[in-house]
Amino acid sequence: MLLGRVVGTVVSTRKESELEGLKFLLLRGMDPEGKPTATTVVAVDAVGAGAGEVVLYASGSSARQTKVTKDRPVDATIMAIVDEIEVGGKMTYVKE
């Protein structure tokens, strides 16, 4: 799984029928210290994440392993909302 921060939404009124009803969020990758990476990805939201939240997401075939995305043509899925990140005994992120 990878770390990212929700930075926006993606709206698509025309899409493949298997994608109907799914919420798409725009993620910016981040490292464990909270610094943004160059990675930007559109991910299906399987857990109800919102703007600004730090999330764990999976990409590739693992993205199709949730109840929401089973057998759907997705390449990235948000699978968890992060509460805390600790690195080397130091809290680098705490959800407000």
Structure, described:
The protein has 96 residues and is mostly beta strands. The chain has a single domain (2-94), classed as EutN/Ccml (OB fold (Dihydrolipoamide Acetyltransferase, E2P)), CATH 2.40.50.220. The chain has strands at 2-10, 24-30, 36-45, 54-59, 76-81, 84-87, 90-94. The strands form 2 sheets. A 5-stranded mixed beta barrel has the order 1-2-3-5-4. Strand 6 (84-87) and strand 7 form a beta hairpin. It is elongated and about 45 Å long. The two termini are 22 Å apart.
The description of the largest β-sheet is: 5 strands, mixed, barrel
For the largest sheet, list the strands in their spatial order.
1-2-3-5-4
From the N-terminal CA to the C-terminal CA, the straight-line distance is: 22 Å
| CATH hierarchy: architecture | Beta Barrel
Portion in helices:
under 10%
Q: Within the CATH hierarchy, at the fold level, what is the topology?
A: OB fold (Dihydrolipoamide Acetyltransferase, E2P)
What's the rounded overall pLDDT mean? 94
Rounded to the nearest angstrom, the radius of gyration is 14 Å
CATH superfamily: EutN/Ccml
Low-confidence stretches: none
> What's the CATH first level?
Mainly Beta
Q: What is the global morphology?
A: elongated
Total number of beta strands: 7
